[in-house]
Specification:
It is a single chain. The protein folds into three domains: 141 residues; 138 residues, no CATH class; 283 residues, Orthogonal Bundle (Farnesyl Diphosphate Synthase). By secondary structure, the chain is mainly α. The chain is built from 21 helices and no strands. The protein is globular. Helix 1 runs antiparallel to helix 4, helix 5 packs antiparallel against helix 6 and helix 6 packs antiparallel against helix 7.
Length: 607
């Protein structure tokens, strides 16, 4: 059998075609958002001309048509090369034939859309054809770069999950497009409820609300699937990473959807909303191809096609400069920083009873990043001795001596100085003082003293991680009030069950390092009781926040109650389990819990 032909520059051509197709879909969203769909009332010409008059709506619609022409040429060129050069690979020729058919259907539907003055059903079918086309191009590119396993190779269950996630995304896309086609995209001016914080009043509003409900349920389903993909980290780091990417896109899509009523359905918000949905669809299609290649655990063989796990491939060595950059990024603990910034942003939105100014948001997020990253960097320097004794932290930059302690300390101090100056200049002195106070408490009280001396280390030390909502609140109002202290208390009481769950999970590490965490000193049973107690208090605090703030509605209350009920259920479930892995589910859920809770605070605050 002859070797398959070299792909040559075909992958580049397909990549350009995919980017052009994404641009075409984005332009289509702009056409709808600016009501330019009939900027060219005839088809295929525009006002009977090849070069139409230069007028705002005409230019937007005509740009969409010209981009469609470019996409058509690119698809045709790709198809011709595959039919000619790769005709011995049936899967590629079939895919490109299907792509050409999808392109023709899309062009016809585009013409019908204009001639019939934008009927909702045809507009929806037009977008569906475009999404099918871009998915087909993505699949073709991925198969061209790496052939699929032999037909009949067993599929891992995660493949079916990812396919379902992609299908759910398509349903969300189509329902949203249909609602916009019905001119009901802005008919519910509030979020997450419809109007005046309540349910819809008439049928068209209910149609719009049905899209939100479908998107909410579908988003949760995709996040669950992403968590399942995360468990494949050992077998395929790429698949696990894409799972986290899918969850991130879902969260970004929710924020973009809420931003539409926040910003009075501005064109930019509508375009971003559809573009993110398309990005999620493409992401999940690529993820489905990747999971299709994954052989079920226990059936892999190094000699069978497609059975070699991606995790076994040797990574390319990084350059010294790249290693140094990665080490400095690692000093800032980006994952911890992200959660802290989310709580600070939540404090800002609640304090403003809406969306603060863009400059103030940027100031707080950048200043907060500098403070958090600086504190973490100093923590690396102070904990270098015990980090070397723990498997989880032994490879940290300072502990492994890739960076010197003086470098980490100087980097951390410098970041905090910049943070203080930026927050004072761009917000106010109270916000800057709270940020620097949080750093000092974290490095001097918690890291230097409490962490090494008392079983209550994380209980008291949790105050440092609870400061960001106060910073966000103070940046907006210039003072602190009761709801701000409730936000502080929520993060404060969230911290112990979160970190105790981690301590149960890696108990041996803490014992080896001589750190008196609760599971090490008092054992599993005592820790289980403490986690449940703090979880109950946390849930009550989240409900009390609703009563203390006039800016939160039923959406937040329902979300907080449901989240708390799940947290309590995880805590109760922990009583029936033993061993280091028993705490893994509640630890992972605690991260998701805090993120969703503060998203609910932001979403339910009136804009």
């Amino acid at each position: 059998m002859s070797a398959p032909p070299s792909p040559g520059r075909l992958p580049t051509l397909l990549g350009v075609t995919i980017l052009a197709m994404f641009g075409l879909i984005t332009l289509g969203a702009l056409v709808r958002a600016t009501d330019s769909g009939l900027g060219c009332p005839d088809w295929p010409l525009c006002h009977g001309q090849i070069i139409p008059p230069f007028e705002y709506h005409i230019i937007i619609e005509y740009s969409h048509r010209m981009t469609a022409s470019v996409v058509g040429l690119l698809v045709a060129a790709s198809a011709f090369i595959i039919w000619w050069k790769h005709r011995s690979t049936p899967i590629l020729t079939k895919l490109m034939t299907f792509a050409v058919i999808a392109l023709i259907v899309q062009v016809i539907l585009g013409g019908i859309t204009v001639v019939n003055e934008l009927p909702a059903q045809v507009v929806t079918a037009h977008l569906f054809a475009a999404e099918v086309l871009i998915a087909t191009l993505v699949i073709t590119l991925l198969i061209l770069n790496k052939p699929l396993p032999a037909h009949g190779t067993p599929r891992d269950p995660i493949y079916y999950w990812v396919v379902a996630m992609a299908a759910v995304t398509m349903i969300i896309l189509l329902t949203g497009t249909y609602i916009v086609g019905r001119n009901a995209g802005a008919i519910c001016p509030d979020w997450p409820m419809c109007a005046d914080g309540g349910w819809p009043d008439f049928n068209l509003q209910w149609e719009h609300m049905s899209h939100r409900i479908v998107a909410g349920i579908g988003g949760l389903f995709i996040i669950v699937g992403a968590m399942k993909a995360r468990r494949y980290k050992v077998r395929s780091r790429a698949l696990a990473g894409m799972g986290m990417g899918a969850a991130g896109l879902v969260i970004a899509q929710v924020i973009a959807g809420a931003a539409n009523p926040w910003f009075d359905f501005a064109s930019a918000a509508q375009v971003v909303h559809l573009s993110l949905a398309t990005a999620l669809w493409i992401h999940l299609v690529a993820m489905a191809v990747m999971s299709y290649r994954l052989t079920p655990a226990g059936e892999a063989s190094g000699t069978e096609p497609g059975a070699i796990l991606e995790a076994t491939s040797e990574p390319k060595p990084l350059s010294p400069l790249r290693v140094t950059i990665n080490d400095y990024i690692a000093l800032t603990k980006p994952k911890v920083m992200t959660l802290l910034l989310l709580t600070a942003f939540g404090g800002m939105v609640l304090a403003d009873a809406g969306m603060p100014g863009g400059w103030l948001i940027a100031t707080v997020l950048i200043g907060g990043s500098l403070a958090s990253g600086g504190a973490s960097s100093i923590n690396h320097w102070m904990d270098r001795d015990i980090d070397r004794l723990m498997a989880r932290t032994a490879t940290r930059p300072v502990a492994s001596k890739r960076l010197g302690g003086a470098q980490a300390l100087g980097f951390g101090v410098g970041l905090n100085i910049l943070s203080f100056g930026l927050l004072w200049w761009g917000a106010n002195l109270l916000a800057a003082s709270l940020a620097i106070g949080g750093t000092l408490f974290y490095v001097l009280i918690y890291t230097l003293w409490l962490k090494r001396t008392t079983v209550q280390n994380i209980v008291i030390g949790g105050a440092a991680g609870a400061v960001p909502p106060l910073v966000g609140w103070a940046a907006v109002t210039g003072d602190l009030s009761l709801p701000a202290f409730y936000l502080f208390a929520i993060v404060f009481f969230w911290t112990p069950p979160h970190f105790w769950a981690l301590a149960l999970w890696i108990r041996r590490d803490y014992a080896d390092a001589g750190i008196p965490m609760l599971p090490v000193v008092e054992g599993e049973a005592s820790t289980h009781r403490a986690i449940l107690m703090y979880t109950l208090i946390l849930t009550m605090l989240t409900v009390l926040l609703y009563t203390a703030s006039d800016n939160l509605g039923y959406g937040y209350l329902i979300t907080a109650t449901v989240l708390g009920a799940f947290f309590i259920a995880y805590a109760v479930q922990l009583f029936r389990k033993t061993g280091p892995r028993a705490a893994a589910p509640i630890y992972k859920y605690s991260l998701l819990y805090l993120a969703i809770l503060f998203l609910a605070i932001m979403i339910d605050s009136p804009i």
